Amino acid sequence: MDTKINLLDLSLDELRGFIAELREPRFRAEQVWQWMWQKGVSDFEEMSNVSKALRGKLAEHAVIRPPTIDTVRESDDGTVKFLLRLADGALIETVLLPSRTHYTQCLSTQVGCAMGCAFCSTGTMGLARNLAHSEICGQVLLGRKWLEQKNSQDKGERSLRNLVFMGMGEPLMNYDTLVKSLHTLRDDKAFGFSSRRMTVSTAGVPGRMTELVTSGLARLAVSLHAPTQELRERIMPRAARMHPLPALMEELKKLPLRPQERTTFEYILIGGLNDTQQHARELVRLLSHVRAKINLIACNPAKDSPFAAPTMEAIEAFQQVLRDKGLVAMLRKSKGQDIEAACGQLVTQKQKEQAR
Ligand code: SF4
């Protein structure tokens, strides 16, 4: 068994401690940190400003091991989905979503998910484990590197600008590692993402939303998907029971938002289930005491899903009800439908293939 420490699992402070244990000066930690995260180097021999003696000690006691790419699928619309293999063989997904000027990367935080949302392939897997710091930030390392290579081939300039924690897993159920990862992603000597460009999407974990907003590390998005407790329990049963709608809304009302800041609500429109004008009116009432921005997403059902995509008429009518009441409501397009880009679809497909 490999007993070497994976340096990608350490925070900068922890790396300083490790370097001190090797009896090396403190500034060496910053150098190694920059090589790993800023330059994406995983071979100690490439760390040209690190002394030969330290490179030798590092090779003896440590490794730099990000996840590896198992499969890459590119969609006709430019969406790129990666199936990543972790050191224990587990599979996770990360997706690059293009816009005209830049890319947004969607990140996973757990292997599987305990929340069991009925519309989500990941929800059918159950929770296997939380992701480690190396596995969360490692997704960004791989996404950024892939884009750099693509840009150099195509002479393109669209870089990775935004991160959304909207992939496999409930980020706030892996809270400590999420926070540690956000610090690394924000660090100028690592990735340098601004907090305004990182969004954590949650189904609602009591107390954790307030903690995250108070930390100022990232923006918050809440997956709502239903305007009533009863309907929410049908669509996202465990999340709805863990933080019932009245308590969830109470917590959201008291969030310490900055002036002009709004909480984003994600609402997946599912054909015939939560997409009527009556549901839209109930949603308006529910959100009447919070500063809200609503992202409407048309359901992109997996092949064997019991759910249906909404009609365009239903989507437009729903959006109009919200807008008529002065709510900011954007329609987000489902991207990468031809490559199973919705959360968990590629992993479940691969698991089925392996079981055959
Ligand atoms: Fe988990 Fe998110 Fe899927 Fe719900 S939608 S089961 S919270 S991964």
TrEMBL record:
S-adenosyl-L-methionine binds at residues 169-170, 201, 223-225, 300. GO terms for cellular component: cytoplasm. Disulfide bonds join 106-343. Its cofactor is [4Fe-4S] cluster. Keywords: 4Fe-4S, Cytoplasm, Disulfide bond, Iron, Iron-sulfur, Metal-binding, Methyltransferase, rRNA processing, S-adenosyl-L-methionine, Transferase, tRNA processing. GO terms for biological process: rRNA base methylation; tRNA methylation. Residues 99-338 form the Radical SAM core domain. Its main location: cytoplasm. It is found in: Cytoplasm. Pfam families: Radical_SAM (PF04055), RlmN_N (PF21016). One of its GO terms (molecular function) is rRNA (adenine(2503)-C2-)-methyltransferase activity. Its EC number is 2.1.1.192. Coiled coil: none annotated. The active site is at residues 93, 343. [4Fe-4S] cluster binds at residues 113, 117, 120. It catalyses: adenosine(37) in tRNA + 2 reduced [2Fe-2S]-[ferredoxin] + 2 S-adenosyl-L-methionine = 2-methyladenosine(37) in tRNA + 5'-deoxyadenosine + L-methionine + 2 oxidized [2Fe-2S]-[ferredoxin] + S-adenosyl-L-homocysteine; adenosine(2503) in 23S rRNA + 2 reduced [2Fe-2S]-[ferredoxin] + 2 S-adenosyl-L-methionine = 2-methyladenosine(2503) in 23S rRNA + 5'-deoxyadenosine + L-methionine + 2 oxidized [2Fe-2S]-[ferredoxin] + S-adenosyl-L-homocysteine. Gene3D superfamilies: 1.10.150.530, Aldolase class I. Binds 1 [4Fe-4S] cluster. The cluster is coordinated with 3 cysteines and an exchangeable S-adenosyl-L-methionine. CDD domains: Radical_SAM. Specifically methylates position 2 of adenine 2503 in 23S rRNA and position 2 of adenine 37 in tRNAs. Reaction proceeds by a ping-pong mechanism involving intermediate methylation of a conserved cysteine residue. Belongs to the radical SAM superfamily. RlmN family. This is Probable dual-specificity RNA methyltransferase RlmN.
